[in-house]
Batch of 2 targets.
Target 1
Amino acid sequence: MALQPNQNHILIVEDDQGRKEFSLDAPVYSIGRDARCDIRLFSQFVSRRHATLVRLPREDGSFYYRIIDGDYKGKPSANGLLINGRKIPAHDLKNEDEIVFGPQVRAIYYLLSRDTMPSGPLDEYDVTLIGPNMMPEFED
């Protein structure tokens, strides 16, 4: 089995109630105005079931998310999705993609690598050494 890269999938949503951050790891998310949606959007301009996020596998064992306009049954939203300024029915999300659901309702998708974190415990004996030329000169 291939080594799976450590990744965080984050969706930052801005709507009429402000800004919210969602860490994505489930296989499917419903997005919309309906209270039963996994990711609820607060705006009168958003459909009850505006979009669906689906997690799909890659060959290396990692995964990515595809956003699809409308609900999981195939019914499209009233106004569609603008992804990076283009109106399209579905899109495989990439780092920093912008999704516009309606006026003043948008989301930014982030794919963050966890490889930047130290993998082991910090060394308690790791100290910064000061060279003699770094010390002020004192007179005797």
Note: DSSP finds no helices and eleven strands in the chain.
Target 2
Amino acid sequence: MFDFITAPLIVGFICLGIYGLFELFVRKKERLTLIEKLGEKLGTPDFDGKFSLPSYSGIKFSFSALKVGLLLAGIGLGLLLGFIIAMAFVPRYGYDNTWQIREVASIIYGASVLLVGGLGLVAAFLIEMKMSNKEKED
């Protein structure tokens, strides 16, 4: 029933894994280069009396959990909306299993999942912007 989303999900996970691997190696190289350059420019007299514990008073929030949560909620609502649309507007959807009915239903499911999932990400962005503006005002 959900054959339309299997291939894009697999390709997406593979691309995400490859991207993460490359990003890991690039970050490591950038950090090593930065440490080498700082070591050349700074000597031990530059650090006298400047070591202290970091201040955690201005904690920065990560919005990745919000994004993932709203994306998954959007995907769930999109599947529910697709099911409701398919049951209401596709004739013989629950009774007949022909190729045309399956294709129309898969298009409805795919479009509703992408639409409502995208709306979930837009909502996450708006919440993130609102919270960052509120943080800047304080």
Note: The first helix runs from residue 3 to 41.
